[in-house]
Amino acid sequence: MRGMYVEKNRERVNIKFLIGTLIMxxxxxxxxxxxxxxxxxTMGAIVIFSLWYVYHTKKNLSCFWDLNIKKTxxxxxxxxxxxxxxxxxxxxxxxLMKCFQFEAVDGAxxxxxxxxxxxxxxxxxxxxxxxxRGVYKIGETEYEISDPFGIFxxxxxxxxxxxxxxxxxxxxxxxxxxxxxxxxxxxILSKNGVEDRNLVKDIRxxxxxxxxxxxxxxxxxxxxxxxxxxxxxxxxNEVFLFINMNKExxxxxxxxxxxxDFSMSLMYSFLKREIRCSISINSMEDKEFYLVDKTVFDExxxxxxxxxxxxxEEFYEFINNxxxxxxxxxxxxxxxxxxxxxxxxxxxxxxxxxxxxxxxHFDSNQKNIGLLRxxxxxxxxxxxxxxxxxxxxCNRVYNY
Length: 400
Fold this sequence. Notes:
Structural class: alpha/beta
Strand content: 25-35%
Number of domains: 2
CATH class of the largest domain: Alpha Beta
Radius of gyration: 32 Å
Shape: elongated
CATH topology of the largest domain: Rossmann fold
């Protein structure tokens, strides 16, 4: 991908050399003689050549990017190729190339000094790994071009097209979680059945506490009263995940990234085992997904790729506002980095109300964790589970 040229003049001049040239001219003018004039003419020729050299190089220098892989996952090593081309009649001796877009990427060359021959090319092969999810635009590349004598420096900037999409990594975690969580294991094996939200059994009058998403708006308008849907039940179970993406997570980017990796890994485990999963995410957008197939999983992955933790609502309040959609004795997985007193009290209250609660956390607040265990709430430090990756680097980014 060839960059678009962006003109931004940033020129630097070696004033000492120019002053020296001027002094030599004055000396030759007043003193005369072949030697002073020869020195002056030589210095003047150097100045003219150097000025022509840097602008000729600036005009004829360009960079091409070869992005063979446009989708990757966290910490996967991929190859990025660049080709710097010089269509000049002189060798390009001293060019400093700066790639600002790779400042947060492991293995990338932030600065690289180049030497190119006449009409030469330089192929740059970089093995890089992205530490954080997101969309990385190739963006701006800057060249600092110097003449062979160090008199002039000019800058050229190119705005490069192309981008790399970095997704959360997927890990093998289900067997370990199923071993540690008696609640989840027992709940999955039970025969309660799951409501299929694509199959409406009948409708009934709205009752306080009903999920607003169950309201049958068309029928309600026809009969001038609120009516809700009853869904058919199918074999299996439904689990419920609450994920804390409060903006406080951004205080530690590595912890935030680890939490999202774990969340996606757990969802992937449910998907592979055909376990239906209702997902509520405490973000600014207040996002919800109902994981029943690969399409929804891909939508969830896109959301996490494009969204950093930005939620404003306290996590315990978020859970309390959403809990009415979880059936009595349902299994709830709570994923969070920190466990404060308010969240601790909220989880204890859920347990007292008959819910099966498993807390997946990073926080090492042993006091709160110990209290939760004392009330019969399962607590699992998820960072200890995130180890072995899904094979073939997440099967070439989720195309399982």
